[in-house]
Amino acid sequence: MPGRMLARLQRLIALSLLAALLLATWLAFRLDAPLLWLLPVFVGGGYAAVLAIEFWLLRRSYDAADPERPSLKQLLLAWAAEVSGSPRVFLWRQPFRSRAEADHFPAGGKGRRGVLFVHGFFCNRGLWNPWMRRLRAAGIPFVAVNLEPVLGSIDSYASIVEKAVRSLEQATGVAPVIVAHSMGGLAVRSWLKDAGRSERFHRLVTVATPHAGTSIAARSVGANMAQMRPGGDWLARLAEGSPALRTRFVCFWSHCDNIVFPTRNATLAGADNRHLVATPHVQMAYHPAVFEEVFRLVGAVEPVATTRRRSP
Q1: Which of 50, 86, 209, 279 is the most buried (most CB within 10 A)?
Q2: Which residues contact 228 (CB under 8 A, 6 or more apart)?
Q3: Is 82 helix (H, G, I), strand (E, B) or coil?
Q4: What are residue 114's phi and psi, to 5 degrees?
Q5: How far is Cα 241 from Cα 268, in angstroms, rounded to an integer?
Q6: Which segments of 192-287 does DSSP mark as H helices, in order?
Q7: Has residue 312 got a pLDDT over 80?
Q8: Residue 240: phi, psi to the nearest 5?
Q9: Is the confidence at residue 30, as pLDDT, over 80?
Q10: pLDDT tens for residues 58-82?
């Protein structure tokens, strides 16, 4: 079924990992091999080590004399947040809960500004589950898309964005606020290249989007990753778009972004650039400052009970 390819892949990864851990547990009992109990430690340690390498590369992207270079304490806090938070995204929400929250078109939604959610690379709409629950509780219309094919050209995602914008326009009668994480911000900017679309969004909120590319893309595969390499032709052509639109962009970025670095590449000249202290790449999508800004832009107040509830 269209839009579920990545969920299937991540589900396979999650279930394979669970099967390996269960097999190790069974063998530990069966063979009386206590060392097998260390397998979960090795798996968790390997995951944490991969993230540590990303943060090391991030730190190296800064000149030692740069006053904006994040401190070791900030990097450690960001690393711990990503180690603890990302498994909920990649091993639960996206593989198993990507369809748990349906798009929302509340009765009487005409004239009420909606929100379009656009995820980033190797993600799906399950990334936005905590967001969608909170917007539903506030009666705010929303649509969350899946960008596929996973390794396709970013330009190919423009049609997906177009369809989602059109559905919100038809349901509400007003241009939506678009919230985009990571590569999703580039997909929206690619959609905006076509004439006549500049008035079809109210504001674009990008979160950890590599507007000027990211060095980590040089170590990755896929047409979309090639387009995100700093200094590339695709990004140069994208930058030629109308700079006047950037006054309607809010770009959240962090010195501790372990995926987008140099980290200033997540900002845009002419946009409202806002720094999130000691916040890693994935966790920026759930930062309270981002929630507050989006609710402000749609002219809504979030219910108190929702803001206090922990989002699984």
Answers
A1: 209
A2: 121, 154, 183, 186, 210, 213, 214, 217, 235
A3: helix
A4: -100, 180
A5: 12
A6: 223-227, 233-239
A7: no
A8: -75, -10
A9: no
A10: 999 999 999 999 999 999 999 999 9
Cα–Cα dist 251/220, whole Å: 24
> How far, in Å, CA of 182 to CA of 211, rounded?
9
The Cα–Cα gap between 7 and 51 comes to 22
Q: At what angle do helices 72-88 and 39-60 cross, to 10 degrees?
A: 130
Amino acid identity, residue 218?
A
- Can you give the length of the chain in residues? 312
Residue linked to tokens 């969004």:
201
Domains and CATH numbers, the chain: 5-96 (no CATH), 115-308 (3.40.50.1820)
Tokens of 115: 């929100």
| Token representation of residue 147 | 């960008």
Q: In sequence order, which residues have a C-beta less than 8 Å from that of residue 230 and are 6 or more positions away?
A: 212, 213, 214, 215, 217, 262, 265
Where would I find the H helices in the chain? 5-30, 39-60, 72-88, 94-96, 129-137, 158-172, 183-191, 223-227, 233-239, 288-297, 304-308
